[in-house]
UniProtKB/TrEMBL annotation:
It comes from Geodermatophilus obscurus (strain ATCC 25078 / DSM 43160 / JCM 3152 / CCUG 61914 / KCC A-0152 / KCTC 9177 / NBRC 13315 / NRRL B-3577 / G-20). Residues 2-118 form the Response regulatory domain. Keywords: Activator, Cytoplasm, DNA-binding, Phosphoprotein, Transcription, Transcription regulation, Two-component regulatory system. GO terms for molecular function: DNA binding; DNA-binding transcription factor activity; phosphorelay response regulator activity. GO terms for cellular component: cytoplasm. This is Transcriptional regulatory protein. It comes from the Bacteria. PROSITE patterns: RESPONSE_REGULATORY. Its main location: cytoplasm. The keyword Cell inner membrane does not apply. InterPro entries: 2C-system_Tx_regulators, CheY-like_superfamily, Sig_transdc_resp-reg_cit/mal, Sig_transdc_resp-reg_receiver, WH-like_DNA-bd_sf, WH_DNA-bd_sf. It is found in: Cytoplasm.
């Protein structure tokens, strides 16, 4: 599968290229460091998948996606980003981003995302005119994490990743309350607490009382498990 790496940061670009080239069925055939260069390289239609960094010097990555889709280009796109802004994620998904590769990434995480897209693409290219429900579910499901369907009702993977990332960042400072995470992410405190309690139940986070003067103590949360 032919891959275009679009990344302005040289070190990140080198890592991505190195990881992709280790995979048997993938090859980096094009590289670009600007949005304009990426659009030029995509025009001939010789690329199957784009690994798209979100920091481009000449245009926003969302504008690049809008331009691509507006021109009728349906190439698969995996966004390479450290952002956990849910509004940005939703917008990107609306423009056909098939998955997010979150920084810092590893060879394993790169391989997983590319293999998911390869499985999706192979199903999409079967060419059958009529699909039964099971086949439709399979086509959509290969782009999701294997355990996504096991998340309880009211817990979405996007929001869970955002809350987890915020908790990890703040835990180095000694812990964080639901209200503090809610303010950082721009979501409600009730919703944030639901996700934090879910992480506690999984054993990925610890809940404890925070005493700051007289009155009722506030609950704070600390990240425990790097693998959860």
């Amino acid at each position: 599968m032919r891959v275009l790496v679009v990344e302005n940061e040289a070190t990140t670009a080198q890592l991505l290229v190195g990881h992709v080239q280790r995979l048997r069925d993938f090859a980096v055939t094009e590289q670009a460091s600007t949005g304009a260069d990426a659009l030029r390289r995509l025009a001939p239609g010789h690329v199957d998948l784009v690994l798209l960094g979100v920091h481009l010097p000449d245009m926003s990555w969302l504008d690049l996606l809008r331009t691509l889709r507006g021109a009728g280009c349906t190439v698969g796109v995996v966004a390479v980003t450290a952002t956990h802004d849910l509004s940005v994620i939703r917008t990107a998904l609306a423009f056909g981003v098939v998955h997010y590769l979150l920084k810092p990434f590893t060879f394993t995480s790169v391989r997983e995302q590319l293999e998911k897209y390869e499985a999706y693409r192979s199903l999409r290219n079967v060419g059958e005119l009529v699909l039964v429900q099971q086949e439709v579910d399979q086509l959509l499901g290969v782009l999701r994490d294997a355990d996504e369907n096991r998340l309880p009702k009211g817990i979405s993977r996007e929001s869970l990743q955002a809350v987890t990332a915020a908790l990890k960042r703040c835990s180095g400072l000694g812990g964080v309350s639901a209200a503090e995470v809610a303010r950082a992410l721009g979501i409600s405190r009730v919703t944030t607490r639901r996700y934090l309690e879910f992480l506690v139940d999984k054993g990925a986070a610890h809940r404890r009382a925070r005493y700051r003067g007289p009155g009722r103590p506030e609950l704070e949360y600390v990240w425990l498990s790097p693998d959860a």
